[in-house]
Specification:
The protein is an all-alpha fold. The chain is built from four helices and no strands. α1 packs antiparallel against α2. It is flat, with a radius of gyration of 15 Å. The termini are far apart.
């Protein structure tokens, strides 16, 4: 693992774990665990003043698989349409 205040935090291992879990008959618990660990890693790396931009981007990207829009002010339009369709 990279250390030091100038080293960036790499999401590579977490992304590999996520992909392996999802390819294993949609192993959702493993994929969620990988995202949780990635989020924890980002927080720890940020405390050490490491560059976490790439890791944050990957967390946002892979969270979309579960419909999570991290850092978004509003839900996606398709989600709102789905909610409205269910209310009818």
């Amino acid at each position: 693992m990279e250390s030091g205040k100038n080293a960036s935090f790499s999401p590579t291992n977490y992304v590999k774990e996520f992909n392996a879990s999802m390819e294993n008959d949609l192993g959702t618990p493993g994929a969620v665990h990988a995202l949780q660990e990635l989020a924890r890693g980002i927080l720890e790396a940020a405390k050490d003043r490491r560059d976490v931009k790439e890791a944050q981007d990957m967390l946002r990207k892979y969270s979309l698989v579960f419909g999570l829009t991290l850092g978004s002010e509003t839900p996606e339009e398709r989600v709102v349409e789905g909610w409205n369709a269910k209310k009818r």
